[in-house]
Amino acid sequence: MTAYYRPSTEDITTPYRAGRMGHLREDDAVRTGFWIVRPDETPGPVTLTLPFDRTIYVVEGAVEYAVTDGPTYRIAAGDAASFVKGSEVTFTVLEDLRQFYVDSL
Fold it and tell me: Where do the (S)-ureidoglycine aminohydrolase cupin domain residues begin and end (predicted)?
């Protein structure tokens, strides 16, 4: 059995296109970690097509995900959501955000 542990005092994040990202685990099947970003670190709404299933849990802050030809979700601290591979989503960071993610590769 393999365990993945990072103490809360350890900064696992590295600069990312917007904000900071830190992978807690990354292998052939799954990638997990945190995305930490402020609204002023993003160029505004960003649209992307997910190349994997993604599940998120917002630890702090708020973000909006608009699914193309589907609903729009405001996901705030304590909320979770899951998007299937191939979904086209537009996200907007609304408040300083700390988001935990699980990508099923």
Answer: 26-101
